[in-house]
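RESIDUES AND SHAPES:
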Amino acid sequence: MDNNSNSNEFKVMIGLPAYNEAGGILNLLKSITAFRSISQYEIQVVVVDDGSKDSTAQIVETYSREHDHVTLVRHSGNKGLGEAVKTIMHYAITHLKDNDVLVTMDADNTHNPLLIESMVTTLDKRDLDLVVASRFTPGGYELGLKTLRKLFSRGAMIFFKVFFPIRNMNDYSSGYRAYRVKTIKQAQTRWRDLITTNGFDCMAEIAAKFSRMEIKAAEVPLVLNYQQKEGSSKMNVSKTVKGYFSLLGRVR
């Protein structure tokens, strides 16, 4: 289907926070472009390069010259995932309308863009605020993840279900999400700074604050294949755990 002829009354923006992703970012952009050509939705892409020291920004800039649905935003230095996601959200709320949708996903080629169709359709048809691509919903699972990281992921799920419960949501750390833009705006109004951490705990911080807003959420199953990941993980587990516990005092 030619996405320029779609009849949907809202747009979809895909936000990619990227730091040293030269090994996989081009393949991901090509996959998104292929998905875009068959999607029923009008899709744009914004890549926030967070001060990469490799050729990530140059690859995206070159690709964007030939594909006008891709925009590059650059940080002057490496500010962390939280700042990159904050930039994506700011870009979304200044370029999109309330009913439009922001999809965030990892730039390391572990998230399949084809899942966006079901995420956005679920969000729209059920009039939800948030849809998460989840490892912890029926049909979702992880491949190629070390046992310690699996235990950490499941421990985090239990922690957030106890202290920051959101109905129908289990995967609080997943960065693969579809947000209704008006929900982000409401959260920004309630908290002067929706994101206060620059680490991997930023996604959990957003979810924790959303839990206080009694949002409507759902999950779609995510098969997360770490064997497709380009490069080593950038997550500091101990720092992320400390960030999770600090939310107990910071999110009211």
Summary: The mean pLDDT is 89. Strands lie at 11-18, 42-49, 70-74, 101-104, 130-134, 141-143, 177-180, 217-221, 223-225.
